[in-house]
Structures are given as structure tokens and as C-alpha cells.
Amino acid sequence: MAQNDKSKKDLQFIVNEGIVYNKRDMMNLLWDLGYVIYFETEKERVLKKGKGFIMRVSVNKEDPTLFLNGRVYINVNSFDYLKVKKVRESLTLYELHGETRVMKIVPDTKKHAGPPFRYVADTMVGLGVMPEELFPPEAFDEGPADEISDEWWKTE
Q1: CA-CA 20 to 30 A from 76: which of 29, 38, 53, 90?
Q2: End-to-end CA distance of the chain
Q3: At 25, which helix (H) or strand (E)?
Q4: CA distances from 56 to 19, 25, 89, 114, 137 (A)
Q5: What are phi and psi of 113, to 5 degrees?
């Protein structure tokens, strides 16, 4: 019984803000975000920004992390930890921290939609193919990302 009590104490408990080191937990927090706006930063300087749809989140040694052509493929093994923080009442920021850079990701709540997912080995993948009318979304290049400055996460 004492062993169960100890393992229960070791479990992470996060409400709205915190740091996640466990790769499986990182994957669980990211896989269903749907449409996102992202910023690649280094020492708080924005290197690149864009928008995309999270297509896959994995935790293995083979898959790359790609933010490309409106699609996002994340391998959490590319990062050391995930920092989650609430920046506004209805806006949560997900920061994937690597050795020298940070990927700041925020769900695009105006376009949140996601296909059902399932586990395939160590990866969460969509079931079936997304209908043509859902991806790429119409007017995806317009909207919230264009209205957000490179340092939007620093303001309340």
C-alpha cells in the first residue's frame, strides 16, 4: 500500500499553468489543439511565425518535428519540456522548450476543429482523411495571427 501512496504523490497535478517533463504527458496536451498559431523564438526574439493544423504528435526516435505548409508534426522528443501558461482568460500558451529555441503555440480558438484521433504505437494520428473543405481552411492566411504581434504573449 505504501508504494501506491508514493506513486500517487509523484503524479503531476497542473491547473492552468505549469511545466511538463514527461513526454507522454506532453503529447497528450498537444495532440488535440487543432488549428494553431506558432512562433519560433530564440532568447525571446521571434525567428519565424505561422499558422497550421496539428496533424501528428509523436514521441519516438524517428519522426521529425515539422511546421510546414500549414501542417504541424511534433515529435516531443525534439524538446526538453513543455511549459503551459494562461495569458488571457480564454487563451493558453504552450511553450515547447529545446536547447536553444522555444516554439510558442497557441490554439486558434476561432478555427478550432479536429478530426478524431487514435494511438498508433507511440503516435497520435487522425482517423481517415480530413475532408477537402476542412483543410486547408478557407481564409486561413487571414485572421488572428495577422492581428497578433510578435510579443503578444508578454501582455495580459
Answers
A1: 90
A2: 45
A3: helix 23-30
A4: 21, 15, 27, 11, 18
A5: -160, 140
Query: Shortest CA distance to 114 belongs to which of 85, 144, 72, 155?
Result: 72
Q: Phi and psi (nearest 5°) for 26?
A: -60, -45
C-alpha cell at 145: 495571427
Q: What is the pLDDT of residues 43-71, one digit of tens each?
A: 889 999 999 999 899 998 889 999 988 89
Q: pLDDT by residue (tens digit) across 105-150?
A: 999 877 655 554 544 555 555 544 444 334 444 444 444 455 556 5
pTM for this entry: 0.70
Identity at 138, one-letter amino acid code: E
* All cell numbers assigned to 18: 505549469
* Number of neighbouring beta carbons within 10 Å of residue 115: 17
